[in-house]
């Protein structure tokens, strides 16, 4: 049994960590922090946790207390983890950061997209990008994990087999992505009201979104050269789920695309290649850590279409964070992450 | 490890049994039947089951095969279980019927409400009404369980402490209930289409609904005399959940209603009395077997209002069925039913 | 053609006034005010108004400018209209207040429920309660209209025929009401987020809600003596609509209830008594000023159930305000309010 | 005042015609047919029509009766209009067909995609494709209109300015489209149930959809040569609305794209080019005949992204049909189509 903490636990990724860790046999949540809600019991804010965490309450963040834990998750807005993560790492606590703070290896690029100086550029080299399907070995020994963003997870897992095999023009990638509203967080914004966001669909950030450089960096790692990516996210009237529709131009005879995908992910516990001709639904992964994929080649032409679905709060955030933790501490990779999706 | 079967597994209560039993350490689903889908793998119909039941397929119902199992769930439309259940009981298989077939003790009343003769009136005496909060001891030794309906569960658990204590006029009960659309089943009906049922609210069956005699029978058991109940169900634009708003007229000084409820349910693993002043949300029980209750006395007047929420597919059907199974086979009552609700 | 203004136009009742008035042949919207959005064009905030109000912009409220108009709507939070309305009335401008500021005749009761002193108690006698089905003649000559709240409209229209006929026990009224989320306004509150309010149902204010005294006052006007009312509102996962389920205990042979309702509303342009046995859906009034009613007597017993649906933003607010304006200025009562509901 | 009929009026495009025509000052709906519902009043099937069509009832289709009308709308499944339309045309009645029956000019291609022989190939030459923004003059004198499909309308209006200007590679078009569930019609299908389609997102027809040849034909008309188009539709959890996200590869310096779009549509009453940087929402056109567009060039690169939203039942079906009717009969083009969208 290890002891973990959660910094910034009032948002959706925080409560999702609690929900999932309630089922984890080897993890004890010893602390959860929130400046604004210190003193409030987590089950008073999140009634689904009644009976699971009846005494755990939000506390002020305290480096001393957190530094005594085995691992600490950061479920904070960007910019918050930079300094505190370093303090904890210095005390030997392993850090799993769900925010964007350590995802980009280039501090200047981070500053450009997030509009503030990077607070811990010296830590960037140490950070491991926590996508197990690409970096499993490094994750096992990592001290600091940058958990991938939700869109980046869905997009990278979809393009991975094609780019590794060199089958598509890496200058012509188009990722049309649809996300449920929890992707925008639990902040009280007019645009996220049920009365505003339901019964409607819209794109946003068409001219540039913060997940673009993260995706590009990840795809470049696979491709070994810079990629040309157009990324358009859309707000979809549902709570959870990301549907990434990925387009690529074939630059060679691709052979059996279905077999390519199945082989690439044959041993991955959380990537499910659906049968040929499938159209995965986001609800098929509601509440679980699985990414389901399908690959199509319309009319046998030059365009390949990959459909990739995840739950943005699980494989796109808290579930993937726990998958990383399992790898870091030598637990079975799927520990605590085995329940089926809630359907219907 | 016991072996169980599911008869009529293509509907929502069937897939919900599979979802929940995937987490049950002592149960193996050995057979699932469907006349219309025989030969189809369950994970092809329900993609959330991929990775959990990769070989299980629907089969034709076969009394020989089912009779060799320890227990069989019926997740069938009404009228189907009457005969087959008897055959299985004769072979020593215990039967947990999620349909309405054995809920009413009076065969004539059943015929009146369901518009057909009762197919097994001789079994009615044997059937135990599977509401553990009322009939736990009888359930433990039962051979045949009639799992309560969804509305009846929410309503009975809400009125139970008040009627047991003799605090309200049992001739003046009003149950205003709101249900998600899965309560109408998975049948392809125009009225259940997203385009018809979302963004709208309506009552139905205001002049008489099949759950009325079941609720009345249960409340009469508590009260020891016939009750006067008005029951109006409403179709609510959500997938899961029942919210019962229960009204009663106090006929005595009720004392501390909050304490009454807390005491009555202190040892119940699946009834959660919320703090005074609470308004439980259906989402707080999404996917779980808990009933959450709150009791109010507006303006300190003569009317008491109980708010009762359940997930109609779990505590209102498949979860309660498993709770019964656990009791019948001597497992810990909450085995397989311990995950927190999915929120948000 | 008359000139009107809207004070506080950024909320849902403001944009709804603009949407409806765009179809009104005799009304020109000359001014719309908002302190926070002054200078912003209304069609930039509400894209559905593009092509209809391409130049109208929010302005600072200015008593001089507003006082030169024929009528001014207040679509403000409570407490705002008290002073400004008086200034406008003194200049001869007729005021139609959609807020709660002039609904209760008793200033002390207003202060009790709204937690602040009433800012214009001397105006209360002048205010006419704008429910045309009860006060049509007074509305025609009114200078100051208090437009009824959304719940009060649905509840009063449902009970009206029964109370007028003296058929039900006025001490035992129960109004179980369900509202879409626009009832909570356009404020950025966590509880109104799609991620929080969709896929869920909950009661609120079970121990006391601000619409209770307003409904009670209205029912008392009908009954000619104080009523005993239990009112429980519920938040429903939809944008628009109120469904009021009203319970009463018959204290006499009611005769033909259907005929009673049909006769009472035979000449009302905005009350539609549905055929016997109906269950009106809120979507059947989406976007329109109609209240649809159905009356049931379950099992021929002593309880009568009235189902009453309105669009909370139209008959429950802006549409009813325009209906009042039509009466005040001698236009045909349904002018600008004749489009069918949007269904599906 | 002209007299019109509707053949096949029970589906969503039928009721939408009735809803819109209720506001049309020059049109009288003299007949509406339905084999299955003959004798039923339209307001009994669609309660939003109560008070608007209190006597109109569905009747058996009768060529004699329909042939006496000025115009007849077909709101039928494909294959139904072929023969009856011809009979009516022979009687001098003008036909506006909302189905796919006359959209493709090549009868063989029609047969290929719709899986049956074309029933009236000799009429194809006569049919005018009813997209006023391309074919206004021909529509005015047409006897037979093929109203464009919903996806084709959104896609063609988005690509039109770019293809006319020769700015994008017409071999590399990608149309990622999202539709509300009414696009699937009012048929009772499991996949369209609220419990199945809400809280989820999925693609469908990724390998080939019937609207593909229609879009390709239309784009070819603009481009004057065959185009290469990948079209992936998605089912979105909302009732109405299409959001088309269109990608093109610039093959020349495009100059000012915003100005290009604004100029092209400057005189179009039903195309609204949003300000630069906009992201149109489908709800901004809920219930109305407008297509709203925005054009983006992410990071100033070679990809152009057009966002195009319509209401699939209005500009994508019944509203466009009425727009055609207005042109054919010399009415002001926007007659009966002037109400603002319902928002929120």
Automatic annotation (TrEMBL), chains A, B, C, D:
Principal cellular location given in the protein's record: cytoplasm
UniProt-annotated catalytic positions: 150
GO biological process, one term: L-arginine biosynthetic process
Any single Gene Ontology cellular-component annotation: cytoplasm
GO molecular function: N-acetyl-gamma-glutamyl-phosphate reductase activity; NAD binding; NADP+ binding
Residues annotated as domain Semialdehyde dehydrogenase NAD-binding: 3-142
Pathway info: Amino-acid biosynthesis; L-arginine biosynthesis; N(2)-acetyl-L-ornithine from L-glutamate: step 3/4
Keyword Cytoplasm: yes
Location(s), subcellular: Cytoplasm
InterPro entries documented for this protein: AGPR, AGPR_dimerisation_dom, AGPR_type-1, NAD(P)-bd_dom_sf, Semialdehyde_DH_NAD-bd
The keyword Mitochondrion is assigned to this record: no
Keywords, in A-Z order: Amino-acid biosynthesis, Arginine biosynthesis, Cytoplasm, NADP, Oxidoreductase
SUPFAM superfamilies: Glyceraldehyde-3-phosphate dehydrogenase-like, C-terminal domain, NAD(P)-binding Rossmann-fold domains
Catalytic activity: N-acetyl-L-glutamate 5-semialdehyde + phosphate + NADP(+) = N-acetyl-L-glutamyl 5-phosphate + NADPH + H(+)
E.C. number: 1.2.1.38
Family that this chain belongs to: Belongs to the NAGSA dehydrogenase family. Type 1 subfamily.
Function of the protein: Catalyzes the NADPH-dependent reduction of N-acetyl-5-glutamyl phosphate to yield N-acetyl-L-glutamate 5-semialdehyde.
Cited PANTHER family: N-ACETYL-GAMMA-GLUTAMYL-PHOSPHATE REDUCTASE, CHLOROPLASTIC-RELATED (PTHR32338:SF10), N-ACETYL-GAMMA-GLUTAMYL-PHOSPHATE REDUCTASE, CHLOROPLASTIC-RELATED-RELATED (PTHR32338)
Alphabetical list of NCBIfam families matching this protein: argC (TIGR01850)
Name of the featured protein: N-acetyl-gamma-glutamyl-phosphate reductase
């Amino acid at each position: 049994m290890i002891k973990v903490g959660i910094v910034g636990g009032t948002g959706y990724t925080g409560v999702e960590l609690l929900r999932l860790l309630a089922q984890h046999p080897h993890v004890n949540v010893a602390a959860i922090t929130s400046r604004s809600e210190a003193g409030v019991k987590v089950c008073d804010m999140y009634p689904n946790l009644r009976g699971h965490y009846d005494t755990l309450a939000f506390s002020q963040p305290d480096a001393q207390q957190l530094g005594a834990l085995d691992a600490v998750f950061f479920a904070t807005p960007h910019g918050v983890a930079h300094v505190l993560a370093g303090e904890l790492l210095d005390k030997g606590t392993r850090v799993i950061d769900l925010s964007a703070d350590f995802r980009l290896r280039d501090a200047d690029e981070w500053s450009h997209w997030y509009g503030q100086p990077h607070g811990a550029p010296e830590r960037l080299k140490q950070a491991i990008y926590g996508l197990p399907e690409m970096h499993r070995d490094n994750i096992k020994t990592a001290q600091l994990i940058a958990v991938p963003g939700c869109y980046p997870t869905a997009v990278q897992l979809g393009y991975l087999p094609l780019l590794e095999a060199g089958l598509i023009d890496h200058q012509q990638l188009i990722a049309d992505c649809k996300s449920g509203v929890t992707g925008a967080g639990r902040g009280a914004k007019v645009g996220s009201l049920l009365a505003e966001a339901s019964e409607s669909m819209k794109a946003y950030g068409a001219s540039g979104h913060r997940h673009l450089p993260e995706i590009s960096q990840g795809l470049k790692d696979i491709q070994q050269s810079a990629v040309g990516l157009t990324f358009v996210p859309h707000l979809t009237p549902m709570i959870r789920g990301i549907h990434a529709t990925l387009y690529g131009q074939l630059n060679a005879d691709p052979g059996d695309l279905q077999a390519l995908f199945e082989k690439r992910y044959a041993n991955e516990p959380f990537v499910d290649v659906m049968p040929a001709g499938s159209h995965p639904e986001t609800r098929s992964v509601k509440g679980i850590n699985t990414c389901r994929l399908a690959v199509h080649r319309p009319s046998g032409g030059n365009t390949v279409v990959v459909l990739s679905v995840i739950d943005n709060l699980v494989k796109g955030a808290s579930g993937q964070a726990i998958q990383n933790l399992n790898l870091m501490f030598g637990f079975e990779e799927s520990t605590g992450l085995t329940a089926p999706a809630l359907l219907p």
